């Protein structure tokens, strides 16, 4: 137990739901000096000189993130089955149409179904798409009674969120009205978001004989969710109404971390949008501002692979930082967004993550992040392949955020 009067300046005492307390930095003055690895330098000190070198360096960085942070997807075989749960049907008062698809992932050990809800404008397409998970079930993103309720097997122990209860975060009409399709899946369809020792969800489907949990370098829940997004992209490749080469993967908070890892590990995603993704997302770990590695591993032991725990309170020892995760998305369009009252996600650390990745965009011949210094609130500059804003208000994804993402994606499609 740490007494309040012992809290050093620049720190605050954070109590997690299980009662454990952590000292977390909440003021710039407490950030200790740190060194960021250079994404354009090999680990042996050799400089990245051309595109060929970058491909090798990129592979190295990707492998490190997989091995030490998010975890590798096991190599076991699986099949994918796509079931039309609802054919294209007029929706949104004539503005668009709706389709629902079951994506079944099957291995020798069993199967799991992720239900995709897809809205599109009323024509024949193919439309560019936003794809992102929702937190509370497809039926919460819009009040439309025809949308299937979430039904993951483990959900029976939890109250179901009311229909339409997350409309503020989804803006279906806004997206479809702007000429885009919008796909969403309940993230719990792929893996439940609690520490169950990886007994529910997708992990057990990939266990070898006698295996009861992923190996220390194998996938946690974020990597599993990212895998699910890639399977939705597999489906898009078969769907004539959408343009599978124009899919922006988007996510808020833990699902922003997921969107980033999906975009980094699957280069078929044409663009990536990270909304308030914070620690383990766009924010630099080595700053340890707000949520830090020890706290995130304690609170959400299932998000990352077991190897990541060796960096608890040892961020300095990480062979990478999150600017390198963002660099893995280069030269594809990437939007990193923060909110000013979301200190826990470390807005400045998210900006510095984007700043650090910008060098790779420039190296690859693209305009990276336009602003060199931390921008004022609500200021926009979408002229680069890399965008950043810090919005007034708190930890959330708002219609205003969506407006910027639509403009950014549209602008980049036009290039
Ligand atoms: C917690 C967690 C964050 C996460 C957030 C969310 O605050 O500490 O890492 O981003 O939940 O997903 O809403």
Largest sheet: 9 strands, mixed
Helix content range:
25-40%
CATH class of the largest domain: Alpha Beta
Number of domains: 2
Report on the structure:
By secondary structure, the chain is an alpha/beta fold. The protein has 2 domains: 36-70 and 270-415, Alpha/Beta hydrolase fold, catalytic domain (Rossmann fold), CATH 3.40.50.1820; 74-239, no CATH class. Helix content is 25%, strand content 21%. The protein has a 9-stranded mixed beta sheet with strand order 3-4-5-7-6-8-9-10-11, sandwiched between helices. The protein has a two-stranded antiparallel ribbon with strand order 1-2. A hairpin with a 4-residue loop joins strand 3 (79-91) and strand 4 (96-107). Alpha-D-glucopyranuronic acid is lined by residues 253-254, 278-279, 291, 296, 299, 344.
Keywords:
single chain, 415 residues, alpha/beta, Rossmann fold, 25% helix, globular, binds alpha-D-glucopyranuronic acid
Describe the structure concisely.
This protein has helices spanning 51-70, 167-170, 172-177, 221-236, 254-265, 293-299, 322-327, 347-363, 399-414; strands at 11-15, 21-25, 79-91, 96-107, 110-121, 127-134, 181-186, 242-252, 271-275, 334-339, 386-391. The chain is of the alpha/beta class and 415 residues long.
């Amino acid at each position: 137990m740490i007494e309040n009067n012992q809290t050093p300046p620049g720190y605050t005492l954070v109590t997690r739901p299980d009662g454990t307390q952590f000292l977390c930095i909440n003021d710039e003055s407490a950030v200790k000096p740190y060194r960021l690895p250079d994404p354009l330098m090999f680990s042996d000190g050799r400089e990245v000189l051309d595109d060929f070198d970058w491909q090798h360096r990129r592979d190295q960085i990707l492998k490190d993130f997989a091995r030490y942070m998010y975890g590798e997807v096991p190599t076991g075989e699986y099949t994918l089955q796509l079931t039309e749960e609802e054919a294209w049907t007029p929706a949104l008062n004539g503005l668009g149409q709706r389709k629902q698809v079951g994506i079944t992932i099957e291995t020798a050990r069993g199967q799991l179904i992720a239900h995709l809800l897809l809205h599109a404008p009323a024509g024949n397409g193919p439309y560019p798409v936003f794809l992102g998970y929702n937190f509370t079930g497809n039926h919460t993103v819009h009040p439309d009674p025809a949308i299937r309720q979430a039904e993951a097997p483990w959900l029976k122990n939890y109250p179901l969120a009311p229909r339409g209860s997350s409309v503020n975060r989804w803006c279906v009409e806004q997206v479809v009205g702007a000429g885009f399709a919008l796909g969403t899946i309940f993230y719990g369809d792929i893996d439940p978001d609690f520490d169950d020792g990886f007994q529910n969800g997708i992990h057990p489907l990939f266990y070898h004989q006698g295996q009861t949990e992923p190996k220390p370098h194998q996938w946690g829940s974020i990597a599993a969710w990212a895998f699910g997004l890639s399977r939705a992209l597999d489906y898009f490749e078969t769907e004539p109404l959408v343009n599978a080469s124009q899919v922006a993967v988007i996510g808020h908070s833990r699902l922003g971390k997921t969107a980033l890892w999906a975009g980094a590990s699957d280069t078929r995603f044409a663009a990536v949008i990270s909304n308030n993704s914070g620690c383990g997302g766009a924010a630099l770990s080595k700053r340890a501002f707000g949520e830090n590695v020890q706290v995130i591993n304690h609170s959400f032991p299932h998000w990352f692979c077991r190897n990541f725990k060796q960096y608890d309170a040892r961020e300095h020892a990480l062979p990478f930082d999150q600017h390198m995760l963002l660099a893995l998305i280069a030269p594809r369009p990437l939007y990193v967004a923060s909110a000013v009252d979301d200190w826990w996600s470390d807005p400045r650390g998210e900006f510095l993550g984007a700043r650090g990745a910008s060098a790779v965009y420039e190296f690859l011949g693209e305009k990276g992040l336009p602003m060199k210094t931390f921008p004022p609130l609500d200021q926009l500059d979408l002229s680069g392949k890399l965008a950043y804003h810090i919005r007034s208000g708190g930890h959330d994804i708002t219609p205003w955020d969506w407006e910027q993402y639509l403009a950014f994606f549209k602008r980049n499609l036009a290039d």
